[in-house]
Amino acid sequence: GEDVEQSLFLSVREGDSSVINCTYTDSSSTYLYWYKQEPGAGLQLLTYIFSNMDMKQDQRLTVLLNKKDKHLSLRIADTQTGDSAIYFCAAYGSGNTGKLIFGQGTTLQVKP
Amino acid sequence: EPEVTQTPSHQVTQMGQEVILRCVPISNHLYFYWYRQILGQKVEFLVSFYNNEISEKSEIFDDQFSVERPDGSNFTLKIRSTKLEDSAMYFCASSPLRANVLTFGAGSRLTVL
């Protein structure tokens, strides 16, 4: 069935790069997303990548998409304490109906 | 920047009571969604809505749930008779096109006692 998987926890030191990984099962998703959730807050769209792209860079964020392996990653350069949050990967389910399938979220802990 | 607005931010209710969660999607968006997140679990799709009707719903979205767009701006989720397991954060989202970028609201936290 449709599924999106992420590792649960990542700890880095301030100033280091963070890489959060995600795998998905449905290859038909037109877009793949990264959302950020701070404690008690909603889902903030961080970035997304169109399925015909391999890479997208947006300031400190780099998204890499490997369609063959159905693997998506988010790299945060120069990670700051304000980046501490839960990061969700999401892809559309089969048929691209608009139904997003979310991963379980990766908690990023940034140590000073 | 346009945003999706949800009210209330937090609602506490007794089991068996009806609850209505409200959302104001982005004004030129055509597709509307409800998702929920039980504490510590994944964000789950509930329902999508387009052209005044449900276009897709999940197994979670049973007869206790309903959605409505009562006027040109609001989009509501009604839970007829709440259960303890309905306690969750409920997120509304909207998008301009199908399978396009979804913008989420800040969520409504529902606590059922």
Walk me through the structure:
The complex is a heterodimer of chains A (112) and B (113). Chain A is mostly beta strands and 112 residues long. Helix content of chain A is 0%, strand content 55%. In chain A, the strands form two sheets. In chain A, strands 2, 4, 5, 9, 10 and 11 form a six-stranded mixed β-sheet that branches. A five-stranded antiparallel β-sheet of chain A has the order 1-3-8-7-6, with no helix packed on it. With 113 residues, chain B is mainly β. Helices cover 0% and strands 50% of the residues of chain B. Chain B has no helices and eleven strands. Chain B has strands at residues 5-7, 10-13, 19-24, 31-37, 43-50, 53-57, 65-68, 75-79, 88-95, 103-104, 108-112.
Largest sheet of chain A: 6 strands, mixed
Shape of chain A: globular
Strand percent estimate of chain B = over 45%
Number of strands of chain A: 11
Low-confidence stretches of chain B: none
**How far apart lie the N and C ends of chain A?**
40 Å
Q: What class do helices, strands and sheet pairing of chain B give?
A: mainly beta
Keywords:
heterodimer; A: about 110 residues; mainly beta; 6-stranded mixed sheet; 5-stranded antiparallel sheet; 11 strands; globular; B: about 110 residues; 7-stranded mixed sheet; 4-stranded antiparallel sheet; about 0% helix
